[in-house]
From TrEMBL:
This is Lantibiotic dehydratase N-terminal domain-containing protein. The lineage of its organism: Bacteria, Pseudomonadati, Bacteroidota, Cytophagia, Cytophagales. Pfam families: Lant_dehydr_C, Lant_dehydr_N. Transmembrane segments: none annotated. Residues 26-88, 341-544 form the Lantibiotic dehydratase N-terminal domain. It comes from the Bacteria.
Amino acid sequence: MDFLYRMHLVDFDPRDTNQILTNWDWIKQALKLSSDSLYQEIENRDFDTLSPFTKAKLYKYLLRGRYRSTPFGLWAGVGLGNWGSANQIELPIAYREIIGNISNDAGKQTQEPSKYRSAPGLKAYADQIQYWSYCRQEEGWRISYLDKNPLVAILLTYFEKSETLDFRIFQTFFKTKKENKILEIWEMLIESGFLIPDNLPEVATSPLEMGLDIKLTSKITINRVIQEKLKNLISEIGHLFVPVESEFLNNFKAWFRYTFDDRFVPLSLLAHQNDFSIHSEPEMETMKKDLSHSPEILGELWRNAEEFDLSRCFDKKKTELHHLQIAFKIFGDNELFIENIVCNRPFAYSGRFSLDSEIKNLVSSKIEDISQEAVFADLILFESQKSNHISRHDNVFDFSIFPFGCGTPKNHLGTDDLHLGFRQERLILISQKLNKQVVPVVQHPLNPNQISHPLSRVIWEIGNQDQYRFLPYQDPTFQSSSYVPRLTWNGIILQEKRWILNSKSHSSQKDLHQFLQKSNIPSSILAGHLDRELVLDWTDPTELGFLWEELQRLKEVTIYECPWKEHSPFQKQDGQQLYPQVIYSWKGKSRTAAAIQFQNRIIGSDPCWTYARIGIKEEGLMPFLFKPFPRIILGLKEKYLLKKWYFLFYNSPKSEIRLRLLPRDQHLNPQLASDLRKGLMECGWIESVQFDPYYPEFEKYDLPDRGIETSESIFHQESELMILGDENRDYTSILTWEERDRRSWITQTYHRLIELSGRQDLFFHYYQGLVKQIPALERRELNKAGIFQSEIVKDCYGAEIFNSEFSKIASGSEEVLLRLIPNHIHMCCNRAFPTETQEHERRVIYGLYKKLGKSLHGRLTNL
């Protein structure tokens, strides 16, 4: 099989009473599965006895079922087809219900789970615990809480060591033997959502009322001429696809970067976050780049035009997407009419129909390739019954992402295993047990706004961050115009003529009729969009009434021409035409995923430290550093006997100081934070103070058998010299020095560390590689300046302070040296230069390279 097709099952004329009578039993069966209220009205009635109002409702249903290809109960189904020498379909149309391999068959009672796990996102606070619970009444996830008590404490301790809990073990937590009382508490915990079934995604049934899925067993054949047209089209319209990003993803990226910087974060840590919220309002998608074509020019080109050939203003370019699906109809003599184009979402049309093995095999053969460094993984969702029904599918991949806790089966990747990071403007998931990147894939068309579980929504967005949209579906030039001509590409219809009707512009149904007539709008139109479309003949008073009702209800209705109606090459023996929608799937470029060499994972927090993020007012950074900051630090050192403290500068996006303080006693941290906030807010230069957990960077600064204490001591000593100076030696703070002196001090200080290691050759070649990356013009300026030719008076400043800690690093392996020393230089430059940090760091690197060259080769070599 080569492709999917979707087709309506109303294959008779809804305007013909005799045909309605012939198909009356089938109509009632279809309505029973789709509209219980209308079925109740007609269940025990003959068609002739129905009221005019009910007949009108039924007529509208049949009109929709006559032309709409979207699978829905008995109204439409999905089948398979091949390319061939002619357009034909097997008759009579045959179909069957798809019975998939689902855990719970429809209509059966779900077995009560015996094992439970703790709720996702569980986190203990001072007086309460918070977690995400599933509300069965509202059919969605919400943040919940319980007050702490002895039983909750026991449960928290238990789940630190065990993943699941059953009632038998739960009973052992109590001294009483009254099983009824214990069972009552057990059921209360389940009702609260604190305990969730171990088999969570499998516990919801899919009752018969949710509908059924139809596979069309009649095979269809499409002329290969159409296939060649599609291949040529895809090879030319690459400029018509624009990258888009959802508002949710854009906001989440900003929040993640601000909160975690370059760290890879375990999903178990993200699971309890509710700082990033899910909005119920419609999400906006924004284009990541502007069009090079002026909207005014495009508007002028199609003014009063019937047709607009986009090939006139867009150059040919091969499509460079991972995957593309084109939904089209055929009319006339192998003419193509494109109804929809979907980018990088290979399961948008298959979804739950992959429960049929033949459809699953076809879909899995159309997925783009992926490099060895990554794997695709299905996303397990649990939402409302309707959403769960839509989301059913047969996984075509080896792995699944389980966002509700630890992954128990081997092929489940849970929140304990997956880490999320941000690299090159992309969110990246990494599985620790697979040591590979994980690309989430959603194998059904569920709208993300139907996902209430925050972590599930985030993973959905990660899987869809390579989103592109077909230009006419996205750009305001096309979307906001009240009229858009037929859009074509060298004769292929990309989008039919389109008008936007507004209820404010039409005072009555008669007025609407006059407008349609005056505007020369074809009598056959498609009104609405996607799963609500309705093909109407507006010259028919009843059908014009349907359009008027929709306009009054929605206030704005989009209508399209229907050139394919009554011009289909497919028809039954009785002459009734069929309008199959064919889905052409194109597998594009492979997904590449370079190995992430350095993850800088968050392993855990250190509660001994206080960590403050201090937002600085514009123009307030240097005044704050010179006077209030040293005073505040000196006061805290004296009061709390700080063992260590250090700071960093960040622009995220405003100026921010990140301050970490280690008091002699961890229990002093709350009072320390209070005093720090008070002192900062009183100085006049501070906009905000935020306290967060301190997550040590073990993978960046860890020394074997020593942890990161050595690096923390160096950070502390540098911070002391930068801000406070050294009163005993009558040295002022380094931040008050000239920029050249600061650069020279860093260069000489860390050259001394490299000399201690005895690996000047290693670092000479390492920094030679970095110097080559400095723009040539800037390198020439540095050579010309000669600023590293001479020593400065303050050469020895602070040398003895670093000797002890530097000696611990100097004895490290090559891996340790190349990991620690460049990172320490980077952090030292950050502290020494609150502004233009990168430029000064490049100069320090250049100075180191020159000094190493001199010590190795006896000369300062230019590059």
